[in-house]
Amino acid sequence: MAITLIDALPKFISPEEHRNLVASTPASFADIPPVLRHKEDNVSVTLDPPLDAFSAEDAANGSLYVIESHLVFMAPSGRGFQVDYPSITLHAISRGEKGPSIYCQLDESVVAVENGQAQNEEKDLADMRELTILPQNPSALEPIFEALSLCASLHPDPGADDEMDDDDDAFVDPGEFETFNGDENQELSEVGRVRSDFLNNSRFAPY
After folding, report:
1. Beta strands of 29-149 (E only): which ranges?
2. How far is 27 from 111, CA to CA, in rounded Å?
3. In 3D, which of 91, 81, 87 has the Cα closest to residue 107?
4. Largest Cα–Cα separation, the chain
5. For residue range 8-21, what is the model confidence (pLDDT) as tens digits?
6. What number of helices (H) and strands (E) belong to the chain?
7. What's the angle, vertex CA 2, arms to CA 151 and CA 85, rounded to 5?
8. pLDDT tens, 128-161?
9. Do 67 and 38 form a contact (C-beta atoms < 8 A)?
C-alpha cells in the first residue's frame, strides 16, 4: 500500500547530524538514516477514503514529519501513518473551504506496479486516495510544501522510464517528409503566412 499504519516513528536524523556524519566519512553512506526536512506540530489530516483502523480522533491533531524516506503523521495516541513518496502524484497548496492546507493525491497503484502487480484503468481509479494536511499555523504551508517537494524529488516516478520508452515510438521517420526548397515567392501554408507576417511585422490578423 502507498499508505501504511505505524505505531512508531521511523528512524531519522537532522540536517546537522547528516552533515557531521558525511564529514566523518562513514564506512557506508547507505547506512546513514534519512534526513528530517521539516516537522510541524498541531496538524490535522483528512483522508478520503478514510484509512481503516485510523480514527477521526487520531487525525484531528498530531505532528507531521517530512522525512526523506517517507511522509509521516503521528497522533499523540501513538498511532500514525506513513506515505511512500512515489505514490504522491500531486501535491499543492490549497486555500479552499477547509482553510489553508496541503492537498495530495495518492495513487496506490504505483506501489502495486513496483511490486509487479498488473493494473487496469478501473482498478487505478479505485486506488486513488486524497490526503489533506491542515497545519494550525498557516505560515507553515510554504515550509511544508518545499520540504515535501524536495523529498518527492528524491523518489522519481518508477513509471517515468516506461513512459519515455513509449514516447520514442511517437517519433516519425523524417524520411517520410519532403524538404521545402522553395523561395519566398512560393506559397506558404495558412499557418506559415500568419507566422511570416507576424515575424516581418507587416500584419497580423487572427483567424
Report:
1. 36-48, 62-67, 71-74, 80-83, 88-96, 99-107, 128-135
2. 31
3. 87
4. 80
5. 999 999 999 999 98
6. 7, 8
7. 10
8. 999 999 999 999 999 999 999 999 999 987 665 5
9. no
